[in-house]
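Final report, section 2: Outcomes. Of the targets proposed, histidine kinase is the one most frequently requested by collaborating groups, and we therefore present its record in full.
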Amino acid sequence: MKPFRVRLTFILIALIGISMIGAGFTMAQLFRDSHINALEENMSREINLLSGTLDFVDMEAPEAVAYYTQQAEHIAKLTDSRITFITKAGRVIGDSEKNPLEMDNHSTREEEILAAEDGVGRSIRYSDTLDRKMLYVAGAVSSDQGFDGYIRLSMGLDAVSEGLNRAWLYMAGVLVLLFMAATLVSYKVASSMTSPLEQITRVARRITDLDYDARVPMRRKDEVGQLATAINAMADSLQDQLKTIRDNEDLLQSVLDNMTGGILMINAEEKIALVNRATEKMLDISNSEVAGHSYRELKRHYELTRLVEEGVSNKQPIHEERTIYNPGERIIRLDAVPMMQDDSYRGMLFLLQEVTEIRRLEKMRSEFVANVSHELKTPVAAVKGFAETLLGGGVTDEKTARSFLQIIYDENERLNRLIGDILELSKIESKRVQLDCSPVHLIDFFDSVLGTISKVAEKKNISLSAEVPEELFIEGDEDKLRQIFMNLLSNAINYTHEGGSVKVSVINRVKPDGTETVVFTVSDTGMGIPRKDLPRIFERFYRVDKARSRSSGGTGLGLSIVKHLVELHRGAISVQSELGIGSSFILELPLLQEEKL
Ligand code: ADP
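The predicted structure is given below as tokens.
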């Protein structure tokens, strides 16, 4: 049961009750009045009847009292009412209830006074004689037989009251029935008025509980219908706004998620408000774990936390770099700006960018420039020195002069090679080199490569051999492949003592994923490479033994170029070596080059 419905029901019932009781009283009054009126009419008609039919005797005669008393008693029996004969002067000469001689003068009685004036008079009053409320009707009657006075009929009102009570009882019954019906109707009316309101209230509550799909199913045109329409329109608009908000949120979220830069937002309470995916990855944290916590909980990244602390306490922009070590050593650039909204400080926004690679490349570039200058300086200085000596004219014997010229020539050659290698390397590194692929028949290829280099090997008495499967072709850039193997083989000959051997072996391999590759191994029985240098020999200008490499004419760039060329063929190169026993360079190149996009 809903209070408003109950209240409305009660109010309706009370209104109906009050009007029914009012109507009841009015009806009772009318009923009583009309009943008494009807009685009066009857009684006055009876008086008229008596005046016309009764045998009157002289009122003054001695037997008059006895006669009228007897008549009164007789008529009273017939009419069931009290009857009194009264002279004009008010003396009672006959009464059906009491001895007239004992009765006082009736001339001052209201009904007699009225009858004297109008012919008929009536009155309701209490009768001392009969000790009850009576209705009196008196008629002025005069007869030729000697009667000139009033005939008065009176009746107790008990009968009226009895009738009235019956009417009341009957009415009360009807009233109760009506009342019950009214209660039912009131409840129905109240329900019909309140249930749409309750329906609307339920929907409004669902909307409050974020169920924006809730609608009031109502097609009424009245005020309640208008309220329902307004609620539905409100829900529509809320849903629209929510959708816009969600769409915007999604958009922002996807921007945040897909940013390569990291975002770290610290609110005015110095708590982490937001961390995007890039920051999660960079700092190895998760938004759900750190959001709402103090930024100090990032203490694992001590340097970074210090910088954040500085930004949060100064509320000033920051542009700095810090190294973090978890997970792995990286350089992070941190740009911070205070977030202001309507002139109030909302926190600090930090943009994190990993610059490790950029800094590494920058460092490499400057090292490269330094290395190049250094490498160039040495031969240039040698050429200059020997040329100056010769020009000075101090060298007279021809043999020394020739040897100086030879040195100048050799150094110039080295310089040439160096410049050539540097140009080649920078071309490859800046990705200006394109592969010109074609099928390369490997047996023919190695025949030609070994042929070119065999003279050098023979000079050192090094045996040179190749083990290549017949009819094996590889798709690749023949010139580049030649460059690769010439480099590896000349290194192998260079770093192998006289009498050693250098071998090339080629096998065809099918990888577990079904792709075919060719594995080349260039091995020698040379001096080998110390374990600590193995990871670095593919770096530019890296030489295990500078003096020896230089004496053998190396530039320190050969393996660098090889590695780049192998990678250009989507292959991989690795090295195995044991000091004093020999080295093996192992290359794995795909059999076929995939189409470039
Ligand atoms: P370089 O022109 O000096 O030979 P590379 O880049 O070709 O330069 O080689 C780098 C260094 O690796 C060499 O200086 C040498 O010390 C070492 N190295 C290369 N190949 C071999 C090998 N087969 N045996 C021993 N050491 C080698």
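The two ends are 75 Å apart (CA to CA).
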